[in-house]
Specification:
- Helix content is 31%, strand content 33%.
- Strands 2-3-1-4 form a four-stranded antiparallel sheet, with helices on one face.
- It has one domain (2-68): 2-Layer Sandwich (Alpha-Beta Plaits).
- It is α+β, with helices and mostly antiparallel strands and 70 residues long.
- The protein is built from two helices and four strands, in the order E-H-E-E-H-E.
């Protein structure tokens, strides 16, 4: 299992509700959460065999910035 960490522009609960169905629909994702208290509005994803670029593209398709933190 991998833990992927991203900086995002998702900054409130309403925006989390917008991306929630997209993340929940990805079967490889076991768990995910946002830390809105962090200045990078961090998204943490626990998943099996998923590309960080794929997560970035899903979030970006919803209209938000998303970049993997290394």
């Amino acid at each position: 299992m991998d833990i992927l960490v991203f900086s995002t522009s998702v900054s409130d609960r309403r925006q989390i509700n917008e991306v929630s169905p997209l993340l929940t629909a990805i079967k490889a994702i076991k768990d995910w959460n946002f830390d809105l208290e962090d200045c990078d509005h961090v998204l943490r994803v626990v998943a099996n065999n998923i590309s960080p670029r794929y997560i970035e593209s899903v979030i970006q398709t919803a209209g938000f910035n998303c970049v993997e933190l290394l």
